[in-house]
Amino acid sequence: MLWGMKAKPEFPETLRDAVTYFAAGDNALNFMATIRWPDGKVTCPKCNSTNAAFLSTRKLWKCRGCQKQFSAKLGTVFEDSPIGLDKWLPAFWMIVNAKNGISSCELARALGVTQKTAWFMLHRIRLALQQDGLCKFAGNVEVDETFIGGKARNKHKAHRNPLRVRGPMTMQPVMGILQRSDDEKTSRVVLRVVRGVKKHDLQHHIRAHVEKGTEIHSDKLRSYKGLEPDFVHKVVDHAVAYVQDNIHTNGLENFWSLLKRTIKGTYVSVEPFHLFRYLDEQAFRFNERKNTDAGRFLLGIVGIIGKRLKYVKLISEAGSPVLPTTGTGEEKKVRRYMRRKNYTGFGFGPLPA
Asked: I need a surface site. Which of 77, 160, 198, 206 has the fewest CB within 10 A?
């Protein structure tokens, strides 16, 4: 125990148990403190002192060294959020265990918050689910690309590409790299949003995520030519067959179907500059699909530490460090508020006029 609390009950295994568990007493706070300081020593994020007192009336700690107060949310994706941990933690449980994702409208109804709040919560959780630390793939690896977006024929005439109204030119290309399952572990995937499907766009990510000497399986796209010196490259021509002996990309084709079912069925429409966040979410669930609900939750919740996503950056167009000069009503409200406060951003420089 970090501050003399009573023994906590058994950790939940289902969503129903999780909602009850994190809503009861100080279970949520005790759990967050355990995640933040697993060795049991509460450390001040300002001066790194371990001499801190717990303020039971405010659920905060006060450092006896620098006299600063801090919460268990500080230094995580939950920082500065007025939403309680009794809502944050069940929301995290829901998104990591929903095979086809959770929409912001559905999460808002479940938690009793607004849709805008639920949307912001989901994007912060997706940041925690990023798995950038995966080791390089080896063994049998599949590489493939797909295109995410609405079909041109379904768009309004004013928004169609004037040069070409059909095909993938109006969509966002995404590259996938999948390591096939073996006796020790299940297949795992890495996804990247790419500018195009040219040779330099695709092979750069292959060399970054696959060990040299690995056997790579791909289709007959010309952009994959040139891998042979560093990899064992095997090609299947989809105009002839989809499987030739052990050469195929069916593992990634299966993943693409899951991804597109999630986007089309749950999220309906995804902005291109937010697409990588949805890819992180789906890749995490796929990579941990053999785990239990509680296991996925515990594995994902560790990713909240040391990450931060602020609303001002999230709503910035294409992730740019400054807000767009035009935008939705919500963006304009944020801009007006920041100008009143003479806000210069988190190292982003002054806002545009």
From this structure: 198
